[in-house]
Amino acid sequence: MLISYIQNKSNEYAWKGYVLAFSFYINAVVMYLVVYYNDINVDTLMMKLKSCLISAVYKKIVKFYTWESSFQKKITDIRNKELSVTKHFRYLNASYVLTLGLVPFLVSLVSFIIFIFYQEGNHLDAGKAFTALSLFDNLKFPLFMLPRLITRFVQVCIT
After folding, report:
1. Are 13 and 5 in contact (CB under 8 A)?
2. Domains contained in the chain, number
3. What pLDDT digit, counting tens, does each position of 138-147 carry?
4. In which domain, by residue range, is 24 found?
5. Residue 40 and residue 27: Cα distance in Å, rounded?
């Protein structure tokens, strides 16, 4: 439908195609913002509810039986484990992002090294280098998105 509007030669309905394409873009942006802010609001609400329940339990039971010191030690231990897991996750996430950023560069670097050292009689001149860099630039986005696609596919298969 969108393509038929845009490919129309008489320009009679061309503006409708552009309006439709623009509305797709606006819809995607609005949906992203709605989902993003909904997730933030749900997370905030869940944290408030959990802290309210914990404080109610703390006030009623823990203080009543004077278990404050033993619960404080248990909570501190659990919190330290949680911080350790979070720290480990952040390091893994940082290495993942670094790897995603380095893969296109490393592919072009290794290709040039292989071309220079293993191809006898071939010289790397400006024409070959810039052509190869242009082709590698075209491959940058697919190389960047492939690991994310695999990750999303695994997440879909798990859920």
Report:
1. yes
2. 2
3. 887 887 777 7
4. 1-65
5. 20
